[in-house]
Each structure stands twice: as structure tokens, then as C-alpha cells.
């Protein structure tokens, strides 16, 4: 699944797990309900700062918003693999943000 689609699905999933409406999530993030809705339909992609706010509001580390469900857990990876994962995620996030700004 494309990274953007994974992000969208995870925002929805963790919002529902936390029993938050789009309005409640927006309030916790200091943004509008319509912006959260646009994120969830893929019309907009949040900045790194907003990703952090969303993750904090959902009570998860930001990287979980970019992970597909699988049997591989970051905590079980060797340090070098973790660093490589972080580097790839940062590049992917930067690429997505760049696409949205164009």
C-alpha cells in the first residue's frame, strides 16, 4: 500500500480506537474539523508539525501513522535496521509534503 494511503488509514483507525470524532481530534490538534476530514479523504497532507500533533492527540508515536499492520515490529528490529527505517520514512514524508506543495 502507498505510504499516503497507509497514513490515511492509520489516522482513521487510531481516531476510532480512541473514540474521537473528527471534531474532537481537530480540537486536540488546534485545527479545523474540515482539515482533519480533508486529511482522511486524501485531499490534504499534513505538515511534519501537524503529524506530531495528530500522533500526540492519538496517544501514539508518529511512526505508527506510517506503518502497515504486519508481523514486523520496530522494537524487535536491530539498531541499524531501525535507523534505516527512520531515514526512509523521513525521505518519504518529505517527498509527500513536497508533492502537496507543488
Largest sheet: none
Helicity, as a percent range? 55-70%
User: What is the β-strand count?
Assistant: 0
CATH topology: 434 Repressor (Amino-terminal Domain)
Strand content: under 5%
Question: What would you say this structure looks like, in words?
Answer:
- There is one protein chain.
- The chain has 102 residues and is mainly α.
- The chain has one domain: Orthogonal Bundle (434 Repressor (Amino-terminal Domain)), CATH 1.10.260.
- 63% of the residues lie in helices and 0% in strands.
- The chain contains 5 helices and no strands.
- It has helices spanning 3-17, 22-29, 33-40, 48-57, 79-101.
- Helix 2 crosses helix 4.
- The longest helix has 23 residues, at 79-101.
- The mean pLDDT is 90.
Amino acid at each position: 500500500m502507498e505510504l499516503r494511503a497507509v497514513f490515511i488509514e492509520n489516522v482513521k483507525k487510531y481516531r476510532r480506537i480512541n473514540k474521537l470524532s473528527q471534531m474532537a481530534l481537530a480540537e486536540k490538534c488546534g485545527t479545523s474539523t474540515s482539515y482533519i476530514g480533508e486529511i482522511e479523504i486524501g485531499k490534504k497532507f499534513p505538515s511534519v508539525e501537524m503529524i506530531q500533533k495528530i500522533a500526540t492527540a492519538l496517544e501514539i508515536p508518529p511512526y505508527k501513522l506510517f506503518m502497515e499492520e504486519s508481523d514486523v515490529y520496530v522494537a524487535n528490529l536491530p539498531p541499524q535496521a531501525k535507523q534505516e527505517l527512520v531515514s526512509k520514512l523521513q525521505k518519504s514524508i518529505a517527498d509527500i509534503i513536497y508533492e502537496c506543495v507543488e
